[in-house]
Amino acid sequence: MTGGNLIRAVRALPWSGKIGLALVAFWIVIALTGRFIAPHSPGAFVSYEVFAGSSGKFWFGSDFLGRDVLSRLLVGAQFTVGLSAIAVTIAVTLGTGLALTAAVGPRWLDELLSRAMDTLISIPSKIFALVLVAAFGSSIVLLTLIVSITYVPGNFRIARSLAVGLTKLDYVEVARARGEGRFHIALVEMLPNMIRPLFADIGLRFVFIVLLLSGLSFLGLGLQPPDADLGSLVRENVSGLGEGALAILMPATAIASLTVGVNLLIDAATQGKVK
User: Which fold, 3-273?
Assistant: First the structure.
C-alpha cells in the first residue's frame, strides 16, 4: 500500500476506527520508546511516600515501594505489547502454516492435524497456560512460547476453514492443472487471498494474548521481578485499591485502552471501510 492509499484508508475509517488507530499507534510508540523516555529507572526508590498522588515530579504518583509509576508503566508497556506481538506472530505463523499444510496435503494428514488441534482447543486456554507455566516456569522465552502455543489451535481452525474453501476455487484447480506443487499453491495461490480475514483474527488473538499475559502476571505466574508488565503492576499495587491509588488505576487503564483500541480498529477494518 502506497503512502497516498494509506492516507485515504485512514480517512475512510469511521471515528471509532480512527480512535482505535490512535490508541494502537500510541501504544506501539510507547513500547518502542518507553524505556528511553522514562524519567526514572523503573526499579529506583524515588519517593519517601508510598501510593503518593500525582505531582509535578511524579505525574502518576508512586507505587507501594515509592517507585515512579510512570517510569514503571512505560517499561511495563514494552513487555506487554512486545511479548504479545511476538506471541501472536508465532501463533498465527504456526496455525496458518499447519492449516495450509492440512488443506493441500493428503487427507490422512488433514485428519491428524485437525484431531490434534481439536484436542488442544477443548482445553480452556487459561487452564492450559496455567498448567504449562506451573510445569515449565515463567521466563520471558518460555512464557512467550507457552502463550503462543495456547492460541495456535484457534487460528488453525479459522485458517483451515478459509484454506479448504479456497482449494475448490477455479484458479487453484488451474494451478494444479499447470503442475504447480503444493508449496506454490499454498503460499502463492491461497495465502494472499486469506490475508484480510486473517487480519481480523490476528487482532483478536493479540487482545486475547494481552489479557492472558496480564492475567498470568496478576496471579504471579507471569513475568517475575525485577521485570514487570502491566498485569504485574496491577498485582503488586493491589493493596492500594482501597485508596484509589494511581499505581493500580493507571496500569489497569493502560490494559483497557490497549485492548479497546485494537478492538475498535479491527471492527472498522472488517466492516469493509478500509480498502
Answer: MetI-like fold (1.10.3720)
